[in-house]
Structures are given as structure tokens and as C-alpha cells.
From TrEMBL:
The keyword DNA-binding applies. Its main location: nucleus. The keyword Ribosomal protein does not apply. It comes from Sphaeramia orbicularis (orbiculate cardinalfish). Pfam families: Topo_C_assoc, Topoisom_I, Topoisom_I_N. Residues 472-495 are annotated as: Disordered. CDD domains: Topo_IB_C, Topoisomer_IB_N_htopoI_like. Releases the supercoiling and torsional tension of DNA introduced during the DNA replication and transcription by transiently cleaving and rejoining one strand of the DNA duplex. Introduces a single-strand break via transesterification at the specific target site 5'-[CT]CCTTp site in duplex DNA. The scissile phosphodiester is attacked by the catalytic tyrosine of the enzyme, resulting in the formation of a DNA-(3'-phosphotyrosyl)-enzyme intermediate and the expulsion of a 5'-OH DNA strand. The free DNA strand then undergoes passage around the unbroken strand thus removing DNA supercoils. This is DNA topoisomerase I. The active site is at Y534.
DNA sequence: CCCTTAACTTAGCACGGATTTA
DNA sequence: TAAATCCGTGCTAAGTTAAGGG
């Protein structure tokens, strides 16, 4: 299979582990690639598609028109009705207008983009209606681009590149309540691009008539291409695909660090419990924060610049307004209620009892503070990580998330897997173990738009199957009666046929029921993130081997490529 | 030490092709 | 065969962390 093929190439390299590979911090010796694929140039609208200002048709200059089309394409979305979005958009749009346009177009509310919007809708409809041949042609062209730009040579291997296309221009849409939503994300030109490759490689050529910003040869980093984005001023990179050696080794290393934490986590826990009693406030805060990070799998929580991003927090940046303390509630003592927006503005809500000492400390931290004050005013991620580094080499806040996620999966798999279960039932157990981790890490998703409906159709199927089953059972019964009466070969065969049918239908029914349970439990939970980023894949591989579940049931093709190192490495007795 | 920035990981969602169902 | 649904994939935003400079 493809996975095995990949492995044969990989095995020898993996055996030379990351530790012994390069001691000088260099990431590669040779790197050759073709550079990025740029966004297609803007194609002006046909003349018949009109933009109206204040009810009157108006022909826009190409730059202004392009930005207008970005807005028109988003018209269906709720956020084009938001004040901040509209304000930011309009401000940036005006920058692209000619002075004449600028003097005319002064109010976004008087702009009518609906013809543009209709035009794009029709276009996407037409794309769907394309003939097989046309679609095939496009597919082939994409494949050609992939073959040409989608791979590079790193050291002695041809590797897949992750994102070889430059992000096209458009309107920035941050997550949550982002102050910059609607701003214009400008087009990236070759002059914005820094190329990284080895000196002795064939350098990528800039498009005719253009130049790269810079070509450098830095083998201390893994990226091939970078540019600076204009919304936050941050750098974007083109890097290798997760299946690449360089990413795989890093991933492996991450899980090895988490396993080292496993060995000393008891010591660290007893230390932070001691620190709850420290006479120094900063140490108490550090210890309580670490307890949250460990127990609740919270993120570190860097400070963020106000007005630059959505207002979200992690552990160290929690504010007074994000927690409530209940000395006693619902039969439980010392309950803390968390309610805040975390990464991607996903809400974290949890109400949990904590140890008395933690509770008392929290009360102390809250004294004389306003809701918008920091809960841990003597702590930040840098202080915390420096402390962690002293406790264990390579230990940082996020290692706790990896460790707790992986150890939870392993534990849950042990607890939930029943040896006698059928394969679908075992997979349900696996998904439930995965789900426990996703809940711990607060990996949520919006319930699919068609969730209720799809549950209903599944239920209908189950009902039908149940009817089928009772019919089949009746038929089996009467076949048995026939056989009893006649004792001939023909009726004996009929009994067997009916028995088989009942068995088959029972299996189908069970599968459907398992599917329904799985889907229902998964309504608002996203399993993918933990599977891809937090769970040591060797745990899953070992589980599959142990219970004779084929790996394809757990990992799809992409995931198998990413985790090739683990599939190759882990035996059924692997322990995280 | 504090602040900034570079580099890299982690994150949810939209989209569209594949698969299933009517 | 078309419509409905599922599922993988690409996209790119949003985190974490280490390092460097004043």
C-alpha cells in the first residue's frame, strides 16, 4: 500500500532520530523548490454587471471594482451587516478609489452590490453545472500545478509542501468579535516574497518582469517562502506537509516530551500543591494557574494587544470577570465557575469543585479587584514557562495539554473497550475515548446545519430495520415449523437461509444504532483537532493492533500519512 | 528585565467531490 | 439520474514559545 511504500523510505531516516541528526540546530542541508503559486490576477466584471450608487449605475475603476467584488461575494453573510465590518471595509475600499470615486462614494449604505452578487452566484452555479469533461480538465490542471509546485527536495527526499499557494486578496474576517474584521487583505506580489532555499539548489524564478524581495539560505528554519501580511503585520510561511520528515520528527519529539512529563508529573503536582501555601503571592498564583492548566487543560494565555485582536484569554490572562466562586452550591463545596472566550473565541464554560486551598487562594487573588483586572496579576506565560523549564527539560504549559490528552485516551480506551464487542462497537468505544479528550480540551464545533434532519432520517432507517427484523424473525419461525413438519432437506435449507437473514439484519440494525449514538454524542464536539494534534498516534496504532481493528477505520489516508512514523513504530503493547 | 518578533503549532469552518439515497 | 448527505481537504486565523535587542 501507499503507506508501506512511504515507510520503507522513511524507516532508515527515522532510526537516525532527531536527536542525533543535527547538533548545530540546522534543519536541512539541501533545499530546492519552485516558489509559490500566486493568486490569479483580477478579472474585471463584464460591462453588463452594474454597481449602483444612490440608485445610479456607476462604472468603477478596476482597483475599486475588485475590492467591491470582495464585499459583493460576502453579501449573504451576516457579518457584512456588522458596524465594525462595514466601517473597516469602507475605509479600506476608499483607499483604492480614484479621487473622483472617492468624492462620489461617501456612504456605504447607498451602495448597491446586488447585481455583482447575483453575477457571482450565477457563476458558481455555472461551475456546478459544468460538463464532466470541463471538470476533468480543471482537475488535470490542478494536478499539474500540484506536481510542479507542490513538492520540494529536502535533503535526499522529495517532500510534499503544505500550502504552496499564496493567500488571495480579500476582506479579512477574524473569528469572534474582531476589531479588524472587514479590512482589506492586500494582494501579495513577488516583491513581497522572501524565498528560502539552499545556495547550491536551483533557485525558484519570479514571474516574468518581477523580482523577489529577497532570496536567503537559512537552514536554521524550515520554511520555504514567507511574506508579511498587512492586517496584523505578522509573517506568513509556506512550510512542508505534515507527512514530511521534518514535521514528523517534530511531532514525535512532542509526544516524547509529554511522555517524559508522565514520569515526573507526580513530583510536579506535589510541588505545586506545596506552593499553594507559599508566603509569596507570585508563587501561589503560579501554582494555582499551573493547577488549572494541569487539571482543566487550559492554554497558557499570552497577553494580547488591545484593539488588535478579539478579546480572548487563556489561563495566565484570565480576568476577575471570568470566574465565579461558590463556597457551596448544589451539594458541592468550593466550586469555581469559569466562563470566558478562549482561542478562536470559543466559549469555555465549566463549573468544577476545587481543593479548599485553591479556593481560598482564589478568594485572596480577587480581593480589591475590579472585574476587568487580571486574576493572576503577578504571573504571565513567560514566568510560568521559565518555572516549568526548571522542573523538567523542555517542559512548557502546552505539554500538559498534550500529556493529559494522550493519557486520557489511553486510560479511556482501556476502560471502554470490551474484548467481545463487534468491530463497530469497538470503534464506538474508540470514538468515545476520543470524545473524552475533545471535551477535556474544549474542542467544540457548531452543530451541523442539518443535524436534526439527519438524525431523523437515521432514526427512520432504524425503525425500518426493526420492522424488517421482526418480519425476518417471523419467517424464520415459520420455516422452522415447516421443517419440523416435513423434515426434508429443502425445508432445512430454508431454515438456514432465514437464520442467516435474521443474523444479517441484526448486524445491520446494530450498526445503525451505534451510528446514531455516535452521531448524537458528537453533536457539538469536534474530534479532529485532538486526533491530529494532541493524541500520541502510537496509542491508537497499538489499540488497533491489539483488537484487530484495521487502521483505516481510525485514520483516513491523510492521517495515515501524517502518522506514518507511528504506524511503523508502535506495537500492540505500546504504552504512552 | 521587558518588549518585540520570528517560527512554528493548533484551530474551526467553508467548500466541493465522493458516496448514498430517492 | 438527480438530489441529499457525508466527509476530507484546503484555508488561514489564532495561538505558544524562544530568542534577540535595547
Amino acid at each position: 500500500t501507499d503507506t508501506q511504500q512511504l515507510l520503507r523510505g522513511r524507516r532508515c531516516i527515522l532510526l537516525l532520530s532527531w536527536e542525533e541528526r543535527y547538533t548545530d540546530g540546522s534543519k536541512w542541508r539541501f533545499l530546492e523548490h519552485k516558489g509559490p503559486v500566486f493568486a490569479p490576477p483580477y478579472e474585471p466584471l463584464p460591462d453588463k454587471v452594474k454597481f449602483y450608487y444612490d440608485g445610479k449605475a456607476m462604472k468603477l475603476s478596476a482597483p475599486a471594482e475588485e475590492v467591491a467584488t470582495f464585499f459583493a461575494k460576502m453579501l449573504e453573510h451576516e457579518y457584512t451587516t456588522k458596524d465594525i465590518f462595514r466601517k473597516n471595509f469602507f475605509k479600506d475600499w476608499r483607499k483604492e478609489m480614484t479621487s473622483e470615486e472617492k468624492s462620489k462614494i461617501t456612504d456605504l449604505n447607498k451602495c448597491n452590490f446586488s447585481e455583482m452578487s447575483e453575477y457571482f452566484k450565477a457563476q458558481s452555479e455555472a461551475r456546478k453545472q459544468m460538463s464532466k469533461e470541463e471538470k476533468l480538465k480543471i482537475k488535470e490542471e490542478n494536478e499539474k500545478t500540484l506536481q510542479e509546485y507542490g513538492f520540494c527536495i529536502m535533503d535526499n527526499h522529495k517532500e510534499r509542501i503544505g500550502n504552496f499557494r499564496i493567500e488571495p486578496p480579500g476582506l479579512f474576517r477574524g473569528r469572534g468579535d474582531h476589531p479588524k474584521m472587514g479590512m482589506l487583505k492586500r494582494r501579495i506580489r513577488p516583491e513581497d516574497i522572501i524565498i528560502n532555499c539552499s545556495k547550491d539548489s536551483k533557485h525558484p524564478k519570479p514571474p516574468p518582469g518581477s523580482k523577489w524581495k529577497e532570496v536567503r539560505h537559512d537552514n536554521k528554519v524550515t520554511w520555504l517562502v514567507s511574506w508579511t501580511e498587512n492586517i496584523q503585520g505578522s509573517i506568513k510561511y509556506i512550510m512542508l506537509n505534515p507527512s514530511s520528515r521534518i514535521k514528523g520528527e517534530k511531532d514525535w519529539q512532542k509526544y516524547e516530551t509529554a511522555r517524559r512529563l508522565k514520569k515526573c508529573v507526580d513530583r510536579i503536582r506535589s510541588q505545586y500543591r506545596d506552593d499553594w501555601k507559599s508566603k509569596e503571592m507570585r508563587i501561589r498564583q503560579r501554582a494555582v494557574a499551573l493547577y488549572f492548566i494541569d487539571k482543566l487543560a487550559l492554554r497558557a494565555g499570552n497577553e494580547k494587544e488591545e484593539g488588535e485582536t478579539a478579546d480572548t484569554v487563556g489561563c495566565c490572562s484570565l480576568r476577575v470577570e471570568h470566574i465565579k466562586l461558590y463556597p457551596k452550591i448544589d451539594e458541592q463545596e468550593y466550586v469555581v465557575e469559569f466562563d470566558f472566550l478562549g482561542k478562536d473565541s470559543i466559549r469555555y464554560y465549566n463549573k468544577i469543585p476545587v481543593e479548599k486551598r485553591v479556593f481560598k487562594n482564589l478568594q485572596l487573588f480577587l480581593e480589591n479587584k475590579q472585574p476587568e483586572d487580571d486574576l493572576f496579576d503577578r504571573l504571565n506565560t513567560s514566568i510560568l514557562n521559565k518555572h516549568l523549564q526548571e522542573l523538567m527539560d523542555g517542559l512548557t504549559a502546552k505539554v500538559f495539554r498534550t500529556y493529559n490528552a494522550s493519557i486520557t485516551l489511553q486510560q479511556q480506551l482501556k476502560e471502554l473497550t470490551c474484548p467481545d464487542d463487534s468491530i463497530p462497537a469497538k470503534i464506538l468505544s474508540y470514538n468515545r475515548a476520543n470524545r473524552a479528550v475533545a471535551i477535556l480540551c474544549n474542542h467544540q464545533r457548531a452543530p451541523p446545519k442539518t443535524f436534526e434532519k439527519s438524525m431523523q432520517t437515521l432514526q427512520t432507517k432504524i425503525d425500518e430495520k426493526q420492522n424488517q427484523l421482526s418480519t425476518a424473525r417471523k419467517q424464520l419461525k415459520s420455516a422452522k415449523a415447516d421443517h419440523k413438519a416435513s423434515h426434508d432437506d429443502k425445508s432445512k435449507k430454508a431454515v438456514e437461509v432465514k437464520r442467516k437473514a435474521v443474523q444479517r439484519i441484526e448486524e445491520q440494525l446494530m450498526k445503525l444504532q451505534v451510528q446514531a449514538t455516535d452521531r448524537e454524542e458528537n453533536k457539538q464536539i469536534a474530534l479532529g483537532t485532538s486526533k491530529l494534534n494532541y493524541l500520541d498516534p502510537r496509542i491508537s496504532v497499538a489499540w488497533c493492533k491489539k483488537w484487530d481493528v484495521s487502521i483505516e477505520k481510525i485514520y483516513n489516508k491523510t492521517q495515515r500519512e501524517k502518522f506514518a512514523w507511528a504506524i511503523d513504530m508502535a506495537e500492540e503493547d505500546y504504552e504512552f
